[in-house]
Amino acid sequence: MSASTETSTQFAIEMRGVSVASMSGLNSVIIEDVNWNVALGDFWVIGGWQGVGKTDFLMMTGGMMAPASGCYYFLGKEMPIFEDDRLADRLRLGFVFENGQLFNHLTVSENVSLPLRYHHNLSKADAAEETQRLLDLTELAPWADSTPGAMARNWQRRAGLARALILRPEVLLLDNPLAGLDLRHRAWWLNLLEQLARGHEWMNGRRLTLVLTTSDLRLWRGGARQFAILKDKRFLVLGDWQKAQASHDELVREFRASAVQED
Question: What local confidence, expressed as pLDDT, does residue 198 receive?
Answer without folding.
Answer: 95
